[in-house]
Amino acid sequence: MSQSNISVNENGWIKWYCNLEDHHFFCEIDEFFIADQFNLYGLKQLFDHFEEALQMILSPNTPTDEDLEDDQFLELYNEASELYGLLHARFIITPQGLTLMKSKYLQGRFGVCPRVLCERQNVLPIGLSHDLRTSRVKIFCPRCQDVYSPKKQMSDVDGSFFGSVFPHIFLSVFSELNPTQPANEYVSKIFGFKVHKKKGSKFQIQQNQTEMYYYAEDHIKRLSQISNSQQQQSQQQIQQQSQKNDEEAEKKQKEALNAIQKLQKQKQKK
User: Fold this and answer.
1) Could you write out the DSSP letters of every residue in 20-32?
2) Nearest-CA neighbor of 178 among 138, 125, 121?
3) Is the Cβ–Cβ distance between 24 and 57 less than 8 Å?
4) Cα separation, 165 vs 130, whole angstroms
5) Family, per the entry (predicted)?
6) pLDDT of 265
7) pLDDT for position 77
8) Rounded to an integer, what distance in angstroms lies between the CA atom of residue 55 and that of residue 13?
9) Across the chain, which distance is largest between two alpha carbons, in Å?
10) What is the rounded average pLDDT of the residues 123-139?
11) Residues linked to residue 194 through DSSP beta bridges, in sequence order
């Protein structure tokens, strides 16, 4: 489908879909983005009626009440919804998509963090997987850096419609939106005294946590170089020790020969 065949529709299916109840996390995808074949790469094999679903998304008409009661229409609508969602995940990490999502974020359209100590920090939508029908959409808090379920369940909004990288790309591009204050931490106290090494104490939990390390590629290379260097040093030490042992053995052999020669000379004199 070429861009020349696309006309921008101000009141088409896309606008109608994004204005449905519990669809306020969505932004309206530019139709020229959908028309670009590059952006559709890898999606066709996921759907039985890909072309029909794409036509529905780009339709200038909105579904009627009769359409929504037609089982065949609803089957196609489900495919169109999932196709739009996967395209949405790709669109919102483009400059245009990020700008639209920034406007929603600043307006608090995605909600606030349910954690009391985050003091109503605005959140961002996130998916736990890029695969369809794995989990529903979640929310990510930039302040406490944790993931929660949204206030409304949004049963028909899949996590893959936003992907797992969106919040991190968003906060990298709009670094000024990163919270300036760290997350407040709750400290267990009894009559004003901190609880240590007891059940319910965060101190005890931290003590029991297993420490984990994640190495970047350059760190792995450095470790590999250190390991190789250690192996070389070990080999050199073995070679040096072996050479030293050979020299000592040769020295002892010479001493033994000299002793035998002396004894033979003494016998000849007698």
Assistant:
1) STT-TT--PPPHH
2) 121
3) no
4) 9
5) Belongs to the casein kinase 2 subunit beta family.
6) 73
7) 94
8) 10
9) 133
10) 94
11) 189
Closest CA to 34 of 76, 11, 4, 6: 6
Burial of 187 (0-12, 13-18, 19+ CB in 10 A): exposed
Residues 6+ away with beta carbon under 8 Å from 148: 113, 114, 115, 123, 138, 139, 141
Query: Which residue is listed with tokens 């007891």?
Result: 198
Q: 190: part of which helix (H) or strand (E)?
A: strand 189-190
What tokens does 93 get? 């990490």
The partner residues of 148 in beta bridges, in order of sequence, read 139
Residue 73 pairs in a beta bridge with none
Mean pLDDT of 220-233: 66
Encode pLDDT of 174-195 as tens digits: 999 999 888 888 888 888 788 8
Long-range contact set of residues 142-148: C-beta below 8 Å, sequence gap at least 24: 142/167, 142/171, 142/177, 142/178, 142/179, 143/113, 143/118, 143/179, 143/181, 143/182, 143/183, 144/113, 144/115, 144/117, 144/118, 144/183, 145/183, 146/115, 148/113, 148/114, 148/115, 148/123
What distance in Å separates the CA atoms of residue 35 and residue 31, rounded to the nearest whole number?
A: 6
Which pLDDT tens digit goes with each residue over 26-57?
999 999 999 999 999 999 999 999 999 999 99
Three-state SS at 189? strand
The Cα–Cα gap between 7 and 198 comes to 66
Strand order across the 124-126 sheet:
124-126, 138-140, 147-148
Residues 6+ away with beta carbon under 8 Å from 146? 115, 140
